[in-house]
Amino acid sequence: MSSTFSLDKLPSFKPDVNSEFETDKDTRRKAKFCPIRIDLKFVAAILVLLGVAAAFVIYPVISAQKSVQDVIGYDTGNDEETLKKIALKESSKGQPLVPNPLPIDPDTPESGKTFTASTGEVWKLVFSDEFNKDGRSFEPGKDKVWVSQDYFYWPTNDLEYYSPKNVKTSKGSLVLTMEEKSTDGGHNFTSGMVSSWNKFCFQGGYIEVNVSFPGNGRVSGYWPAVWTLGNLGRAGYGATTDGLWPYTYNSCDEGVLPNQTISDPTKCLLRGQRLNACVCSGDHPSPGIGRGAPEIDIFEGSINGDELPNLSMSNQWAPFNFEYKNYNEGTLVFDRGYNVSGKSVMNDYTGNAYQQCASGLYFYDRSIVEGKKYQTFGFEYEPGPDGYIQWYSNRKPIWKLTTAAMGPNAASKIARRVISEEPMVRSLLDV
């Protein structure tokens, strides 16, 4: 048994000698010393230890101070070129200040090279991948943008194991195949996932995919998803997301503390914002600014009984409002309707002990499956405290979220959350 999820394109030492020391008015020094006995072997041992300490402590401190002085020695002012020189000199990895541009696939049609935003602005394409070449490999080191994952995705307690063998390109599409096939880890299913973590990320703009869903549109259990995550977190690696996901918060208050100091800790199981705005200079790279790994989903798919399959198009964040309640004035559904193909409603689910979210449910036709038909989905967003996210199908707006839905919450003693300002990574997976 197998099913496929196809993606057609993307666009300080003080000695104690027991002495008294004083200086008289004539600056003559008078001292009274108590007799002491010295064990030369003990002194030798102490000298050896001090020598070791000098090698491992004093020298690194001197080296670090010299390095800092080298940086401080620049008269930076507002000289942008000087700042660039500092960055180039002090970068341990030697990374370019401006990354090389990613390719635009030559197979991308002219119609896909621009997008008219909700603001009326015309945006130009900066990256695309049509997946038209069959037999591409996405194993580590094989592709400039995509990496197929090889692990069990434990954070959501998945039933399947992700294997690079279940990722391929065929007939002009990226194909992720799910099989009822057990693995060494004892999982009964195997599937595929690709990610652009640390290779390709973006801050603001429009992103879209052209997809065909797994199954026949009537069987539940699949969880096809195309989603983005702040690049500080790496999907599936819990140590990287703990204390980062899904924070998008720039304030210093109870919202950054473990459990948000809520009397009932089961209401928030997050252990606090690790890189928060309360820290001092040197604690992390962005003092005074909260950092995190928020999540914006193009979609996560599901099927409920006899209803049409639906897609949850969501933004997820922390800290949380009291009882995870959103503010309705920050949401807008453009074509409202329940269980009607092409129409949408707001999702009643607004969060749990790990996240608060706002989600629109979009219903799609059962024919968009197994590569028979494809449909385009995406979102446009503007980062920041005055930002927004707007989701699309075939470039027709579905629903919109603004920061009015994420405003201050007196009951939880927290300030406004923001639309993600983090560089966002694209991940694709099939469940």
TrEMBL record:
GO CC, alphabetical: endoplasmic reticulum membrane; plasma membrane
InterPro entries: Beta-glucanase-like, ConA-like_dom_sf, Skn1/Kre6/Sbg1
Listed transmembrane segments: 38-62
An annotated Gene Ontology molecular function: glucosidase activity
Record localization: Membrane
Keyword set, alphabetical order: Cell wall biogenesis/degradation, Glycoprotein, Membrane, Signal-anchor, Transmembrane, Transmembrane helix
One Pfam family matching this protein: SKN1_KRE6_Sbg1
Source superkingdom: Eukaryota
Span of domain GH16: 93-424
Membrane topology, record value: Single-pass type II membrane protein
Family: Belongs to the SKN1/KRE6 family.
Protein name stated in the entry: Putative beta-glucan synthesis-associated protein
Species this protein is from: Zancudomyces culisetae
